[in-house]
C-alpha cells in the first residue's frame, strides 16, 4: 500500500533528512587517503547518537541478505556499486567512494547517498592514469545530473515513469550502465516502502504522483556501460561484473503541490 504523508509528517521526515545530510557532510569531510571506511562508520555512529537518532541500516535484515547489516553506513569503493560493508582497508588517493546513509528520527526515516573521488583531486597523484581520475569525476557528475533530472520530473500530476525516464535518459545518453532491477523506493516510518522508483522507464506510465508521496530517488551508474553485477562473498556488497567503477547519488524527496521538495538537505 502506498501511504501519502501529511505536511506535518513530511516536516518530520525533513528533520530526519537534516540529520542525514549533516552526518554525510561530516563523513565526506573526513574521507581522505589513509582513512578506513570503518572509521567513517564510527564517526557516523557517534553523530547519530548525539543527534538522538537511530541507524536505519544497523541490524537491517532483508530476506536476500546473509544476516543483519553490521554498519550504519554503506561504503562502496571503486567497482562496488552499493551495500559495501565499511571495511578496515584504508582509502587511497583516487578511490571512487560512495556512501549511503539513513537514520530514523522520532520514528521517521530519511535516506541519502553521495559519491566522491578520494584525495585532493590532483589527477597526477591519483592511482591509475590522469584520464581515469577525470572519467571518475564525469561518472559522478552524470550520476548527480541523473538524480537532479529524476527530482525535476517528480512533479505533482506527473507519473512514476517520467521519473525513471528522466534518470535513464541522462545515464544512457552518457553511455553508462545501470544496476538492473535496482532503484529507489518509498520512504516513511520504514526505510523501504512502496512504491518502487525505477531508474529507467517509459514516460507517461505508472503511478500518478500526488502531493504527500515521499520517495528516495537513487541512480547507480556504471562506467562500463553494462548492467550486470555480482554479489561479493560477504553477501551484501554489489560489484559491477566487469570491474568498472560505479557511482551512486540519492535524495529523499516529497511531492508537494509546489513541486518536489528535497528532504535530505542540511
Ligand atoms: N539505502 C539503501 C537502499 O535504499 C539501503 C541499504 S540496506 C543496508 O538501497 F542494509 F545496507 F542498510
Ligand atoms: Co535508498
From TrEMBL:
Family, per entry: Belongs to the peptidase M24A family. Methionine aminopeptidase type 1 subfamily.
Protein residues bound to a divalent metal cation 1: 100, 111, 250
UniProt GO molecular function: initiator methionyl aminopeptidase activity; metal ion binding; metalloaminopeptidase activity
UniProt-annotated binding residues for a divalent metal cation 2: 111, 185, 218, 250
Keyword Electron transport tagged: no
Species assigned in the record: Pseudonocardia halophobica
Name of the protein in its database record: Methionine aminopeptidase
Oligomeric form and interacting partners: Monomer.
Originating gene: map_2
Key words, A-Z: Aminopeptidase, Hydrolase, Metal-binding, Protease
